[in-house]
Amino acid sequence: MAILETRKLDKWFGGLHVTDEVDFTLEQGEIHCLIGPNGAGKSTFFKLVLGEHSPSGGAILYDGKDITKAKSFERIRHGISVKFQVPGIFQALKVRQNLQIALQHHLQGASLNEETDRLLEFLKLKDAENQLAGSLSHGQKQWLEIGMAVALKPKLLLLDEPTAGMTPDETHATGEMVQALNAEGVSVLAVEHDMAFVRQIAQKVTVLHFGKVFAQGTINEIVADERVASIYLGEVHA
Ligand SMILES: Nc1ncnc2c1ncn2[C@@H]1O[C@H](COP(=O)(O)OP(=O)(O)OP(=O)(O)O)[C@@H](O)[C@H]1O
Fold it and tell me: Carries keyword Nucleotide-binding (predicted)?
């Protein structure tokens, strides 16, 4: 069963066709990566799924329900959570306080503390729990941001370039976190440029090009596809 489906999803910005009749399916329990050259429309697709842009046409279904016209906060309440490229953490608060702000939406008292501890361990931030979030390294900030998204107990986690600016070790550790979340039942849609990361986590890959679905398959199928290689070299036009 699909947790997320788009049908002929369309978005124009003025005369620019940025999302072009995209039919996309993300199965329940899947880790699905969205790749494509700069300007392919990946972030726009994300924002359409989140309700930050309204589509020019087509439909978005989440867990079998039509959410095309639902507000962003309603989508989040139904279990869609997102980590954007730019950390949205509270820099002047401690790491622990950041997580508690997100967790207190559904937890209080002892269980709030227990879950904060569990999440700190999971994010490899236990030693940094009393540091101000603004003083964390770039990679640690990204993990805290993932933690803030995970704290909302999503069924579908959207990750926009979660490993941007990370070292290879941090990238690998992030992949392990995503896989652990997935093992707990979270479906994941990630926009990512780092192909090592995509290879590590993706069960399915969709390639966008000029706003259209250009190719879909396993990572091995995608890297073996010469047409996909050529769009990154700017040789193929839709
Ligand atoms: N709010 C907007 N208004 C007008 N044009 C926009 C807007 N947002 C994005 N675009 C344009 O839409 C196209 C797709 O942009 P988008 O950010 O979705 O691509 P992307 O695949 O995420 O790119 P990147 O990998 O560089 O982040 C680009 O040409 C961009 O300039």
Answer: yes
